[in-house]
Design goal:
Elements (H helix, E strand, L loop, with lengths): L10 E3 L6 E4 L4 E3 L4 E5 L2 E4 L10 E5 L3 E3 L5 E4 L2 E3 L16 H5 L3 E3 L1
Parallel strand pairs: 9-10
Antiparallel strand pairs: 1-9, 2-8, 3-7, 4-5, 4-6, 6-8
Length: 108
C-alpha cells in the first residue's frame, strides 16, 4: 500500500529526493519528524540512552506505535525544517545538523 505524502512543515523541499527505508524501531510511540538513530542492530529516538546525535540514521516519515514487529519508514535523505524535528529532551536539534548533513539529511 502506497501512502500519500501530505504537505506539512517537516519537509522543506522535494528538490532533494526523499529516499526511504523500512526499519524496526524499539517498542514505543513515535511522531512523524522524529530523528531516528541506529546502534548495534537497533533503531530508536535520538537522545535515548546511547542514541547520540552522531548515530542519526534518518527522519521518521509517519506517526507510529510499535509493539513488536511493526515496520516504520524513515527518510534517509531530504531537506527538513528544524522546528519539526523531534528528539528526546536534553538533546538539541541544532546538534544534529552536521552529522545529518554527512548522510544527505539537510536540516534548516
Amino acid at each position: 500500500m502506497v501512502k500519500e505524502i501530505k504537505p506539512d512543515n517537516l519537509i522543506i523541499s522535494t528538490n532533494v529526493n526523499l529516499v526511504k527505508k523500512g526499519v524496526k524501531l524499539a517498542p514505543g510511540t513515535y511522531k512523524r519528524g522524529s530523528a531516528i538513530g541506529f546502534v548495534t542492530d537497533t533503531y530508536n529516538l535520538i537522545g535515548e540512552s546511547t542514541f547520540t546525535v552522531d548515530k542519526i540514521e534518518g527522519i521518521l516519515a509517519e506517526d507510529i506505535t510499535v509493539t513488536s514487529d511493526e515496520m516504520a519508514i524513515i527518510y534517509l535523505t531530504g531537506q527538513f525544517n528544524a522546528d519539526s524535528i523531534i528528539v528526546k529532551g536534553g538533546t538539541q536539534v541544532k546538534d544534529l545538523i552536521a552529522p545529518a548533513r554527512k548522510l544527505g539529511i539537510f536540516i534548516f
